[in-house]
Each structure stands twice: as C-alpha cells, then as structure tokens.
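During the practical work, I selected for study one protein's amino acid sequence and its backbone structure tokens, as given directly below:
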Amino acid sequence: MPSNFWLIAQREYLTRVKKRSFLIMTLLVPLIVAAFGFFIVKIATSDNDTQDVVQVLDMSGQNLGARLISTKQMQFKPVQGPLETVKKDYLKSEDDGLLHLPAGLSLEAPRGVQLFAKGNVSIRKQQAVETALDKLFSEDKMRASGLSQEKLDALKTNIDVAGINLDETGKEKSNNALATSGIAYALALLIYLFIFMYGVQIMRGVGEEKSSRIMEVMLSSVKPFDLMMGKIVGIAAVGLTQFLLWGILSVGATTAVTALFADKLAATAKTETAANPGGTERAAGVSGGAEVASADAAAAPDPAAAVSERFSVFKALRGLPLGMIVFGFVIYFLGGYLLYGALFGAIGAAVDDQTDTQQFMFPITMPLILSYIIGVSVILRNPDGPVAFWMSMIPFTSPIAMVIRLPFGVPVWQLALSITLLIVGFIGTVWVAARIYRVGVLMYGKKITYRELSKWLFYKG
C-alpha cells in the first residue's frame, strides 16, 4: 500500500479516538452493561430477602390449611371466620395475601381455590401457592391410593438428554444447544451492529468532507482509491479499538457484579437444591437402602460450586470448535465490514446531501438486514439446511449467516469456499465503490440516480 494510504488511515484513526464522544461511549457502554447486570442479579436475588405472609382460610373440612408447609419465601398463617369478614381483616393487616380453600374441595377436581392480594397478584406468589397446594394434594392422593412415600419417589423421573455431536470419524463431542445458539446469536449481532455503526460513520465522514470541499484539496496529492481505503481501514481500526476496550471493561464490570452478589447467588442455589432434592430421594426409593441415599447425598453439588458452574463462561464453551469460531469470526468480521464499508463510502461520495442517502441505503443494507432476520429465525434452528448453506456462500449474507453456523460446526471445505467467495465479493465491491468514488467526490449540484451511477462505473475520464 502507498504511504499516503497509511497516512490517511492514521489520520482517520487518531482524529476519531481523540474525540470526547469516543471516550464517553467507550466508558459508558461497559457501565451500562454493569448496571444492567447489577439490576438483573438484584431482582433475581431479591426474593430471597423477603418472606411473604399468606393467610389461609380453610373451609374444605380437610385440614389443608394447617398442613401447608411454609418456606423461606412464604409463610402460611391459618385464619378462621366468614370469608367476607376475613377479607376485611386482611385488608387492615400487613400480610401479603389471603388464600381461600372453599368447601367441597376434592382431590380429583380441586376447583374454586382463590388467592386474594392487595393490588395485583404477582406471578411468583401465585406459583408458590400452586406449588405448595400441588405437593399437598399429591401426598393426599398418594395416601388414598395406598402408595408409600418411597414408592412415590421411585416413580418420579427426571430425564436429562445430553446432546452429542458425531463427526465423520465417529468421534464424540458434547453439545449444549442452548449455549451454542446463544453464542451464535451474540456473534451475529456483534457483526451486524459493527457493520451498521461504522459503515454509517464512513458514509457521513465522506459526505462531510465532500460538502466542506476538503476533498478537493486532498485529491490534489492522493489518489481517490487510496483516500477511500484509508478512510475505511482507519475507521475499522477505531471500531476494533472500541470493541476491544468494551470487551475488557465489560468483563471486568460483570466479574465485579458477580463477586458482589456471590453470597446471594449461593443462597439462591442452596434454596433451589433444598426445594428439589430429586436424585437422593429417587435413589433411596428405588434401592430401599440407606447406602445409596448416603452416596447420593455425599455426591450432591455444593451450592457455591453450582453458582460458579452456572455463571461460568467456560461451561458454555465446552465442546465447541473454538479455533474455527475465532478464526471465522475475525475473517467475517473484517471481510463483512470492508465489503459493506466500501459501498457506504461510495454512497457518501455520490450524494451532496445526507438526506439523499436513503434511496441508496435500502438496496445495500437489505441483504444485511435479511441475513440477520433469517439467520436468527431459520439458520439457528437448522444450521446445516439448504437456506443456511446458500446464505453462507453469498458474500453479502455470509458475514452473518456463517458466523451463526460456526459454533455448530462447519465442514472445512464450506468455510474455505465461503471465505474465497467473500474475498471475491470484497474485490468486486471495492472496484465498484472506487469507480463511483473517483467521480462522485468531485461531483456537485447534480441529482444522482441509479442510471447515473451505472455510467460512472465505465467513465474513462
């Protein structure tokens, strides 16, 4: 590359990173991520700090209210009296709910149960009451059928289906479909946002320099192609710098939030483990012996370890083709940006007014938008299907389509073919953009149409 190219790229980079807006956005985004994570964790753990008190008016005649088991999150308090009187007393109290078990309530068809609350009945409160009643009715049905607790526990089954990927040689690799889909979605969103954000910056930067006539001075010593590519590469470096800083600061902020709530997260895991012991009870019921129960109890996961495992990024990455993902992401990240960046630069050079860019933006951005919509709705569900294959081969859609497929595993020949086509597509768009750019940057006061642009492609002057 000529020295002028690097001078232009350096100028674009230094001019933008020294702006106050760049520094503010670089610091603001990680703070927003940290604040968002803080409130999410705060909301998720806030339920453990409070205990709702629910009055229970049992008119069923089956002593259900007295047998409801209170938990750390909910305390059941039996009350007596006519329903209307109890409701009035409840409204005067500081309790959080009133549960009415009507007369004639049967095990076979438990209808008419009501939960009153001051204001709206929260989903959490309603689900907690339903869970407590389900457990109570299940125990009564068990007694009515003559089944013991051990036999009932033995009938319960929790099935956890492990996804295993088999390659062509028969080698097994574990697969977490949810984690894989989440990573694919995140990578696609990152590329989509990067291309749009910094592609528009290229277009506006070229347009501003053209309208201020700075372009005429620069073109006296720089070739149009060098000017265009220098601007594209310089802004790309700005974007990469910002994304790198965002990543480092966001990881640090997220780690700080997780450490801040470590005790509460451990308490949440401990509560869930206590509420659903599962494996120990079933093993004891099946074997009928204390040895198996003791072994399962000893093997029960520590709540703090469960939290660490749950919030660990490495669990989601386990079993994924990390080398292919990182390599492919970098290639499509840069290739997609350069391909679309050249076209955005051509638009900025072609028009005099930024309001005129809309008619040219639509056909350029439509493949990008469609690839994202189809990617997250179709390709995520079937990453090896024909739609996924062909969209990952077309240069205008492959930057998003292929990165969605990468976490699921892609044959090497498909990846190589897609990258080759992306490079060819990039060369083609750069040629088109350069032809438009060299004419458009010095064209003023003329309404540009698609027909006019097509003439510029073969302009010999």
